[in-house]
Queue: 2 jobs
Job 1
Amino acid sequence: MTVNAGTGTAASITGRGIVKTFGGFTAVDGLDLDIRSGEFVSLIGPSGCGKSTFMLMAAGLIPVSGGELLVDGKALTAPLTDIGIVFQDHLLLDFRTALDNVMLQAEFRGLPLGPAKARALELFAKLGISHAVDRYPKQLSGGMRQRVSIARALIHDPSVLMMDEPFGALDAITRTQIRHDLEMLWLETGKTVVFITHSIEEAIGLSDRVLVMSPTPGRVVDEIAIELPRPRPAHLGDYPSFNTYSDRIHEAFRRFGVIKY
Ligand SMILES: Nc1ncnc2c1ncn2[C@@H]1O[C@H](COP(=O)(O)OP(=O)(O)OP(=O)(O)O)[C@@H](O)[C@H]1O
Ligand SMILES: [Mg+2]
């Protein structure tokens, strides 16, 4: 992998008629989307519709089988390096402390370690886990581990942050708080965020736009601009428009037989 630090700016991601096949199986078919620079966009769709596959393609980790994927208007030909990824499973190394797990990314990228450590400590503070710096992953709660994963994804100040169901394994209360903390971090940094989720509330709570995907083979079937003020409250039901957005997402899933009642 190329060793580099991020530019700290945001990137745009454009998909035009993306197709992805695995052998004879078509996982993604005709996926079009535009994710603007600095935008927070959620992808929501049923299990198996190709969300993770899209993320891997957009990160340049697997090739498209057809169509075009452009980052800042340029076709992707290699893995993106100016990117941070938070996977569903935290993937922290058990034998490294929280701080050392974050620093691994800095070491790997050949960043100067002094400033990287200062930045890591700053991220720990912003994410409310300063007390966890010297703890090992086994000594952390699930929510704390995901916060460490977010710090690791941001240590090199990437243009794009991609998150694949990052809070899927967390309880509802922890999810509500971590959602707010992520929103505050995003408001401060203005990075492009691609956020994959199964949670309609989480998608509405975080996003500028929600892209709804069809069942397999996946493509974008609805696009909803979320016009709620930021930072958003924990209880989104206070906004009448929350129900309008939520109904519209449910309706898209009903149309495709994902929700049958
Ligand atoms: N490497 C692969 N080889 C063969 N099939 C694959 C591969 N990766 C993904 N698939 C298939 O492509 C489809 C989309 O998978 P993907 O992981 O992108 O779904 P997803 O939308 O992320 O689902 P989930 O919400 O459950 O995570 C699935 O049917 C999956 O089995
Ligand atoms: Mg997935």
Job 2
Amino acid sequence: MSSQYDSFATTYRKAVALDVRRYVDHFSLTRVLGDVTGKSVLDVGCGTGIITRMLKQRGAGRVVGLDLSEGMLAVARAEEERSPLGIEYVRRDIADAGALGRFDLVTASYVLPHASSPEHLSAMCRGIYEALAPGGRFVAVQPSDALEVNDPDFYRTYGVRASVEGRLEDAAPMKVTATMVDAEITISAHYWTRGGYEAALRRAGFGGIRWRSPEVAPEGIEAFGESFWSNYLARPYAMLFECTKEPAAP
Ligand SMILES: C[S@@+](CC[C@H](N)C(=O)[O-])C[C@H]1O[C@@H](n2cnc3c(N)ncnc32)[C@H](O)[C@@H]1O
């Protein structure tokens, strides 16, 4: 099965290098993850492996990247070949992630909005739940349900453009454009509210759901100045959550 990502996997590599990803998304994700030393981690929807590699570089133990797009995996595997870290990449649907074993941690960076219906989102969450050891944690980052959509240029300074078709409701079609110096890609995904995510997570069996706001890395403030980030922080583009697979009752 081909994916929208197959055609622009190489360009996508540039999008993950955008300052907003490095100084906000990656920094915030790292803060929520905490110490990953020695932990087994599954990065679902790993794409070109930006987060997957970051996890391994931060001392994680077994690290597996899972994705459906052969094109994205090819870029991730080429990077692994160029600069080996010992990451395994597998082509699989998130809904079937449970077959890969039990991990201490699962991460999903800008992946869950690819769910096109509540059933689809629940199947993804259930696959992630199955792939976790009891007590394991799932941490995800995705577009915020409070992001500015009335002014499509609101995030232009940061290289991002987002629009939602129709009403702001769960599964509404959403388009996200990332603009780099020499390229642009537009991704089709879906808008989800916190309530929509929480319902799917609870249906899958997760508990301890906690929402986290993105933060700007001190290096980002140093590089661009505080006022550069003020629009972003007024209406953050991203939101993060963490939740746990509660250990079975004795
Ligand atoms: C926006 S990219 C994010 C890539 C990477 N996590 C990052 O932060 O740069 C979304 C990725 O999720 C993958 N994906 C979407 N639905 C999936 C599914 N059901 N199973 C596996 N991968 C999926 C896509 O192929 C794509 O590589």
